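Work Package 3 (structural annotation) set out to generate three-dimensional models for the target panel prioritized at the project kickoff. During this period the team completed the workflow that converts sequence records into C-alpha cells, so that structures can be stored uniformly alongside our sequence database. As a representative example, we reproduce one entry of 151 residues exactly as it appears in the project archive.
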Amino acid sequence: MSGKPKNVIVLDALIKKRRETAFRITEMERETETVRANLVHLDAVIRLFAPNVSPEQIPPQTRRPRQLAYFAHGEITRRALDMLRAGGTVKAVDIAKQAMTDKGFSFEGDRRTRIEFCRRITMQLTNMARKGTVEKIGVGRGSRWQLAGET
C-alpha cells in the first residue's frame, strides 16, 4: 500500500476550497484595513469642522431587517399595540397566531411561516421596547409583553 490517501479527489477539492477561503480572508482583512484608515481620516475632518463633535459617539449605520411580504409597513406594530391594549400582556407567539389566522395560514401546519412570523414579531417588540413603547416580562419563550408603564 502506498502513502496516498484513498480519496485523492475529495482531498484535492478540500485543499482548493481551503486555499480559496484563506485567500478571501486575506482580501477581506486588507479591505478592512483600508476602510479603517478611511474612518480615521473622516474622523479627523469631522473634528476640523466640528471640534465639539466626538466621532466615536456617532453610532454606525445598522442593517434594516428585510420586510416580510406578508405585512404592510407598520402592520406588526399596529397588531401588537391593538392586542396589548385589549389584553394587558401577550406573548409574541399569540400575536403571530392571530396574524397567521387573519392571513389564512395554518399556525400548526405551516412551520416555516410560523417561525418567520414569530421571529419578526419578536424583533419588532424588542425594537418597541428599546423605544420605551412596551416592556418585556420574563425571558425566553415564556416571556410576555405589556405596554410601557403598566404594572
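Helices lie at 8-49, 75-87, 92-102, 111-130.
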